Amino acid sequence: MATLKKSSPYMIEFYRGVRIEFISLVSLFVFTLLLYNLSSMQFTNTAIDISMAGFGFLVFGNIGTFRLFTYKVGSRSYPKKVAFFFSLFSVSTSFYFLYLTFKIADGEYNIVQSLWV
Length: 117
Prior knowledge:
The chain crosses the membrane at residues 20-38, 50-70, 82-102. By secondary structure, the chain is mostly helical.
């Protein structure tokens, strides 16, 4: 109801504060379901579930680094170059871990290897 602005002002403000996190969690849920359903492997005793749990932390870390572009302490804003390099590093490592997750889902790693990747 808060998305339709038919709730109390407190709930509307609360929803505005957690909107990005909510959208990220729902999209990660849908992505994980698609990964499980479209893969030909049976996911018993593998590290794909651990990987997707870790990927959620990476997504929220990326959101935090993107917020550095608008971060201010007093009247001084965070340096844009530093924020750019942090964001670039964070996104590139996220894509690398996503690539490894796809390789695990395709069955290119056995059980022991998938736990250590």
